[in-house]
Amino acid sequence: MKKVLLLIFSTTAIGAMAQNPDDALRTAWFTQNGTARNMATGGVMGSLGGDITANHVNPAGIGLFKTNEFVLSPGFGLNKNKFNYRGTDTSNNKNNFNYGAMGFIFSSSNTRGEKKWTSSAIALSVNQLANYNNRIQFKGFNNLSSFTEQYLEELTKDRADTNAALSNYIFGSSLAFRTFLVDTLSGPGGSVAGYQSLVPISSGVNQLYDASTFGGYHEIALGLAGNLEDKMYVGGSVTIPVINYRRELVYSETDATARTDNQFQSFEYKETFSSKGIGIGVKLGVIYKPQEHWRIGFAFHSPQLMGYTDKISSSITANTETYAGIRTATSNELNSGKAGERKYNMTTPWRAIASASYVFREISDTRQQRAFISADLEYVNYRGARFSPANKSDNALRDYYDILNEGIKDSYKGNINLRVGGELKLHTIMFRLGGAYYGSPYADNAIKANRILATGGLGYRDHGIFIDLTYSHMFTQDAQFAYRLNDKPNTFAEQRGGRGTVMMTFGFKF
After folding, report:
1. CA distances (Å), 295 to each of 48, 57, 278, 412, in order?
2. Is residue 495 part of a domain?
3. Helix (H, G, I), strand (E, B) or coil at 162
4. 161 Cα distance to chain centroid
5. Which residues contact 57 (CB under 8 A, 6 or more apart)?
6. Which pTM value belongs to this model?
7. 3-state class of 384 per DSSP?
8. CATH code for the domain in which residue 151 is found
9. pLDDT of residue 14
């Protein structure tokens, strides 16, 4: 496969907390989440409206409200992951609570009739766009590369002397150097000719990657929409994205041979990483009814401008047998007992949604509507994510982020997501089905990735009270990298599995 750029920046100790293009996907590649009704129909909301989820998809849709409404959407997720790494299969499960769109909608009707604007509505809502609670675990035999080679690339690129190797890379290379997992190569007259890894790559090692992730991508939205003679609806929302992400990683390599004289038995790398961000964005939309039964919608989501603070602590324990024995080094020892901290900015990719719906018996009294079918086409410019330093005066950091952004453009592409769903209404009971396909964000065709949703649910509405129950199942195909290298093809674990979500929405009109 095409090598994906690994970015190494180490002129300061904090620079060792290098980012890579994977970080851009955390706020870009996710499936539609909302109320139970919305999820049951595959996430279609580009032209339907009449649901609080519209405030996060096409704000024009809240213009269809003519009553006030309060909504709650608790949920529960069931993760089942399967990985194949270099011919070895592993699987694991992780379940967790989550939530969908919830909040308030306030509407106002024009009862005088002298204006073309029939009604307007304001919505204040929160939605979890992505749930990060998961466990990524895979293992396998590797005789092509080692996790330690990224340290060799870092030290070699910087032409680091031994003093720099001991102290300048406190979250990675310095830990490897202090535990003799990586050591110097002697040159003429006792000089340092370079660096070597004590991992016996040619005979192979057994690798294990085990990461537990926590948190979510949340969005607060304040939306306003207007209804023009029940023919056209226009709206917009100001969004505040809030990111809370944490990863606890344990990675190890163990000698695959039974030898006790090759100066390597094993090493274990541990890392605790957290990332918190907050930002602002805008979503604009329009829904038009060209004729009875039909609705056509278009929405544009601007890039969200976000500020991040990341923290990291790490350690390495290595057993190099007769070479240096068992040694441990931690970043806390090299950083006055504190986690490393990094501040930076990010611009998320923009997206656009085109949608059409056909509503059977399309009349103003929604209680008389009998069914609908709807479809959304969504384009996401995954390669459009951009990072920048919080400190604009730091030229070295600016150069680093320029390289990172080039890596993102090389690694990803824009792609289209498709959502389809429908509802059948029998008086107070609704039956719903839907599905969705989310295409690969990767530019490299060797990485097979997609997400497929199958959804269904029931709803009840009567006397201003509604209860919806939904089950959606996501089939996942993705790639997980344990590490990335510049000088060798990168190997990755093929991920297949699924995530089931049970969502219930309760609400009432007032």
Report:
1. 7, 15, 34, 33
2. yes
3. helix
4. 38
5. 32, 34, 45, 46, 283, 285, 299, 353
6. 0.89
7. helix
8. 2.40.160.60
9. 39
